[in-house]
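Case study 2.
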Amino acid sequence: MGKTTIAVSFEEENTKIVHASLRDTGIFVEKTETIPNDQFDIYLKKETSKEFIVTCDFTESYHNVITLPVVKARHLEKIIESEIRKTSEIKDFSFIYTIIGERVIENKKVLEVSYFAVKNEEIRKVAGRFYDNGKTIKALYPSVFSTVPLFRSEASEEAIIGVLGAKTEKTAFLIRKGAIYFIRKFKSLSTDISAIDIQDINMTINYCLQNVRINPSMVMLAGNLSRLYNISERPSIPLACLNKSGDIRCSEDTFNEFIVPISSFHASRASNILNREFKNINILNNYMTNASRVFIALALLCLGLMLHDATNVLNIKGLLKSVKKTNADIESVLSDYRAKETELTRYLPVVNFLEKPVPAAQKLLIVLGEIDMKNSSVNSIEAVAKDNSFEIVINGTVEADTYSSIQTAFQDLTDSLNKVQNSKITDKALDIDKKTFIIKMDYKD
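Prediction:
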């Protein structure tokens, strides 16, 4: 039995949700639902699952096919990013790309690449809804790229025009060998295919012939559009409908209605446009989860060694005492485990803070985590965003016995904090009797 995974697709005013079990034999759809977008935050608060696959039809995007010099793979991403900045004039963005292949232009070998870019502001609006509710996004796909695997098997070596439809808008895109060359959205007056829609599709075909210089072999309708067989007018090239493949286990109606979230289960990892700041949060969350699992495994291992000869639950207490006296190695392992568990607890406030939607303070938190605290420990960290900086308030405790050692430990901590780049201590206070301190800092990212 495969693990249940949830896919979410934002489509105009509605959100479509699919719960499915992913197995070697295919996708087994277990539950589907459609809710208004303005009720999605209520759904997230009630849903117990923590991780989601998300697909979004971004309102503003930038896509094109560009030619680049043939370079090593490690340089390619930077060159593509530079070309996007030149052609689109946007600064803060994330992008995905597909290598189409090499060709010769004017006796020079060049590399053709298809890219798709979105402003990070749009990504934050989508991802923020999940992270604000304590959820994480495993992958974020543009709607068209989510469905590419379905069309890839149909397209083979030939180019086709795929068409997806929503309530008031339809999307036509040219795909060949798994690469998207062109995407065009056009307004629609109905949920089915009308004569005006056919005209827009014919305009897309002509654009592909004249500008992209690719002759598509057919038009393929997908989703709910594939139900519409009785069309009075047809495009200038053959028309076909995308059918459900055998590895997708659900009804044909469910497949057509929820085609975008269902197809996202098999979307390429290269189509994940989630920007770096959210990916870093995911990496940190996974690290903490794995660390916790290691600690739990160590604890179970220790308990297993201590309980190996126990035959009665009532004798466990006596057995543990005996093992503690006779087996110093186990006590050493337990002591080491407790020390690591205590160390992990010190950083839980940092992790909780990272999960809040203020990812720009991560660099400071990473630096704070690397400081040798010696006889000091951090109880809480608070951050308040200003125009170009953060006001950081650190509350902590000094673990020392004498007034002089308390003062020395506090001075060592402030000296270490003064060395943090882009930061400045604005205020500090030490309560020697209570052995507590407060340090205020200004930090610029």
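DSSP finds 14 helices and 18 strands in the chain.
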